[in-house]
Automatic annotation (TrEMBL):
It comes from the Bacteria. This is methylmalonate-semialdehyde dehydrogenase (CoA acylating). Keywords: NAD, Oxidoreductase. Residues 16-479 form the Aldehyde dehydrogenase domain. One of its GO terms (molecular function) is methylmalonate-semialdehyde dehydrogenase (acylating, NAD) activity. Its EC number is 1.2.1.27. One of its GO terms (biological process) is L-valine catabolic process. The lineage of its organism: Bacteria, Pseudomonadati, Pseudomonadota, Alphaproteobacteria, Rhodobacterales. It holds the Pfam family Aldedh.
């Protein structure tokens, strides 16, 4: 059986802690690899090596660092199918979904080619007599990223690309559930010209996370995962004086107005609610039709679409709509919440609880579920299910629908489907959620805008990718410069002289 370790100083190394976890194949339920879990000592040694390598990397001019990103774009495109196959095997998502995962990460690397422009400071000529002022953006030193299982290529690339192109060394702690693609990406960065030691990939569990948060050399930490862990990492990291950005859970609402194209809305809900088995922080998990007539017509359209969804392993190719969830525990939690929804009075109009796939009975497959008449006091409404479950909450007015999304503790993404421009504009202006779609069900911004949620979906002042990423991974230094032509009698070098 394959044994996976870490990426340290430009090569794969075995773990020395003696602790391991299993890497599963979600489609079969079988163990496919053993993963070494790093100790605090291993993490600290990797950080020390990264700090040493960062000095020369930080002094490398931004254009040369950008050339590494340019080379990386070509290498990822070259190995796209290879990366996607490994990603699908460990995560379970379909091959097209896996390629989409990689593609969205690749777009951030493309954006990072513009690092020389993004790192430019500001200049003021003659701020005072013979005085100039200018600012510069400088790397923090060593930064770290703790990334989730559901996007094992995209989110590591979102973290690594801006941090490295800004001149930092980077420690990546990917999910222990699907660690192979991050290790492969590290190999590609080396091939692209990244110096050894600048990027380290440390696999581990809570011991490694705590070691990252407590290590005084690490200046910044980025995290994506559940809200309870986001709160823990944000609190502990900030208390240790680090710059921290954490992105947590979501319960994304899609409001369907009476004037919406209901066929378009139903297609959007099926794709956004069930794609990737619902294991996306930007998945739509709550449909909010306005008015009973709208709700009835929407449910009528949703049922046949959902019942036609094909669930299976990624090896079935394009004939599968979504694959298994990532672990047996995840499957059991989803079904527990579905049962809880039934107990609390929601109407289960599409019931996937008895789904079983012939030949893959031990896999972690979950059938599609659709609830109607869900109320906001129910667990399936309050909780992020992270599975193929769509809840329908009927609203009697636009204001009631708007209030549902605004009152929920999560504020990651939301959408509205309508033909009315005034309603859409009002919605975009008033909603207290970080990413908004208008007739777009999954409003994930492109790489040159920032990605981040509000309320309990995001912690920290700066978001992922876009200009915010370069602000997060650098600090600003402002210089006030004076070059007098000669020392003159009575010269005064003080604040008043600058007026």
């Amino acid at each position: 059986m394959e044994e996976l370790g870490h990426w340290i100083n430009g090569k794969r190394v075995k773990g020395t802690s003696g602790r391991f976890s299993d890497v599963m194949n979600p489609a079969t339920g079988e163990v496919q690899a053993r993963l070494a879990l790093a100790s605090k000592a291993e993490l600290d040694a990797a950080v020390e090596a990264a700090a040493a390598a960062q000095i020369a990397w930080g002094a490398t001019n931004p254009q040369r660092r950008a050339r590494v990103m340019m080379a990386m774009v070509g290498l990822i495109n070259r190995d796209m199918d290879k990366l996607a196959e490994v990603l699908s095997r460990e995560h379970g998502k379909t091959f097209p979904d896996a390629k989409g995962d990689i593609q969205r990460g690749l777009e951030v690397i493309e954006y990072c080619i513009g690092a020389p422009q993004l790192l430019k400071g500001e200049f003021t000529d003659s701020a005072g007599p013979g005085i100039d002022m200018y600012s510069m953006r400088q790397p923090l030193g060593v930064a770290a990223g703790i990334t989730p299982f559901n996007f094992p290529a995209m989110i590591p690339l979102w973290k690594m690309g801006p941090a490295l192109s800004a001149g930092n060394a980077f420690i990546l702690k990917p999910s222990e559930r699907d660690p192979s693609v991050p290790l492969m990406l590290a190999e590609l960065f080396k091939e692209a010209g990244l110096p050894d030691g600048v990027l380290q990939v440390i696999n581990g569990d809570k011991e490694s996370v705590d070691a990252i948060l407590d290590n005084p050399v690490i200046q910044a930490v980025g995290f994506v995962g559940s809200t309870p862990i986001a709160e823990y990492i944000y609190g502990r990291g900030c208390s240790n004086g680090k710059r921290v950005q954490c992105f947590g859970g979501a319960k994304n609402h899609m409001i369907i107005m009476p004037d919406a194209d209901l066929d378009q809305a139903a297609d959007a809900l099926v794709g956004a609610g069930y794609g990737a088995a619902g294991e996306r922080c930007m998945a739509i998990s709550v449909a909010v039709p306005v008015g009973d007539a709208t709700a009835d017509a929407l449910i009528e359209r949703l049922i046949p679409r959902i019942e036609k969804l094909k669930v299976g392993p990624y090896t079935a190719g394009n004939d599968v709509d979504y694959g298994p969830v990532v672990t047996k525990a995840a499957k059991e939690n989803i079904l527990r919440l579905v049962n809880r929804g039934v107990e609390q009075g929601a109407k289960l109009v599409v019931d996937g609880r008895n789904f079983s796939l012939q030949g893959y009975e031990n896999g972690f497959f979950v059938g599609a579920h659709l609830f109607d008449h869900v109320t906001k006091d129910m667990d399936i409404y309050k909780t992020e299910i992270f599975g193929p479950v769509l809840s329908t909450v009927r609203a009697q007015s636009y204001e009631e629908a708007l209030g549902l999304a605004m009152d929920h503790e999560y504020g990651n993404g939301t959408a509205i489907f309508t033909r009315d421009g005034d309603t859409a504009r009002d919605f975009a202006s008033r909603i207290n959620i970080g990413m908004v779609g208008i007739n777009v069900p999954i409003p994930v911004p492109l790489a040159y805008h920032t990605f981040g949620g509000w309320k309990k979906s995001g912690f920290g002042d700066l978001n992922q990718h876009g200009p915010d990423a370069f602000r997060f991974y650098t600090r600003t230094k402002t210089v006030t410069s004076r070059w007098p032509s000669g020392i003159k009698e009575g010269s005064a070098f003080n604040f008043k002289a600058m007026d």
